[in-house]
Amino acid sequence: MNLTPKEIVAYLDNYVIAQHSAKRTIALALRTRYRRMQLNSEMQNEVMPKNILMIGSTGVGKTEISRRLAKMMGVPFIKVEASKYTEVGFVGRDVESMIRDLVVNSISIVKAEQEEQNREKINNYVINKIVEKLLPPLPAGASESKKDDYQHLLAVMEKRVESGEMDDKIIELEISKLNVEFDDSGLPPEMAKVQESFSKVFASINKEDNKREVSVKDAKILLRQEASAKLLDINSINAEALRRAENGGIIFLDEIDKIALSEKSNGRNDPSKEGVQRDLLPIVEGSSVATKYGTINTDHILFIAAGAFHVSKPSDLIPELQGRFPLRVELESLTEETLYEILTQTNNSLLKQYQALLAVEGLSLIFEDDAIKAMAKLAHRANELTEDIGARRLHTVLEKVLEEISFNADEHNGEEFRVTATLVHEKLDEVVENDDLSRYIL
Ligand SMILES: Nc1ncnc2c1ncn2[C@@H]1O[C@H](COP(=O)(O)OP(=O)(O)OP(=O)(O)O)[C@@H](O)[C@H]1O
Ligand SMILES: [Mg+2]
Questions:
Q1: Please, where in the chain does CATH 3.40.50.300 lie?
Q2: 325, 289, 296: which is closest to 106 by C-alpha?
Q3: What confidence score (pLDDT) does residue 56 get?
Q4: Closest ligand 1 atom number to CA of residue 64
């Protein structure tokens, strides 16, 4: 991951409109990670990441920015909701489990890379195993010419398996249970180990039951897992994954405002909220967390927290936690123009989505520019008159405008449907201006 800040921002621009300072800050933080990795190890240990707090009301792109980042980057990344954690001792997930999740994510990245590098080996393994099942072995002591024939047959069969021609054939496969992966990332390492030894014991007892009849198509998937378990060096994958999570990992802590104690409801709040904040402190500050793959140090993991802070304010977080998020970026509320751009200029904009969906019914949907402007204007107006729900308003607005044609699309196969400003006003004017109506409908 060595994109420059400009490149990162340029990429984000394809999906998120406006919010320039948020995009800049994040891009810079990512680049700093890269710069740090180029230093000697002594300097490296001195450079601490500066965690970021994104503040902005609902629906302005906080989660969207992080989601796009995650897709773009090959670095270990997880997004978690702060509100799902509870203090140690309460029922629920402890905060340390987010670090374990990050390691698991890192492992899957490294593993995918290794699988890609060993693709041919893995492929051969899979094909050979399947061919073995499909062709009876050559009896011992066969003549030379028989052997030649058999070799030829093998080659033909390999081709047929590879091309997918044999996908529907059923074969019998022994599935080694050791490959079965448990979703135990949330468990503390001691528990995970216990669970693992249990599964090993059961696997050895159940050897007989592991034979299954599967189609060649499914066998390819199952054997692929077996192949990567056999051919790849799990230990080095784990070590590399830990290293990457430690130095390049990013944790996006969404809904951080939900664990702040607002003044209004002071005291009557969930007592575990402050506890969660306290539990977060050492992790954000840097501490060692045991995972079943080894111990990971959280010093250099980058934390990006985000919250709407409608009810509470950043200053309602306990001071120690506030101090650990020195970079603050505010996301702007969306204007009419931004809403228009969100509709017209993002890569997977809602308009494109609706067009694609209705194209399935053979209906081609055309949005006139005036109509798009009108929708942006009305969405903005509705945000002003009732709650400001940001770009999410566009969903309800579009849904309302297109509801009828969407419902009757099957009758219009092969036709063209133009969304005009007149249509938009017809569908929406009354709803937007009538406060009661818009609260329910938009
Ligand atoms: N600036 C923007 N540019 C493009 N699309 C946006 C923008 N802001 C929001 N959206 C769209 O609006 C929807 C909601 O945005 P998002 O999930 O980022 O909200 P949020 O800021 O995380 O809000 P919340 O505080 O409620 O979680 C998404 O579908 C997203 O694509
Ligand atoms: Mg969000």
A1: 5-108+242-330
A2: 296
A3: 93
A4: 18
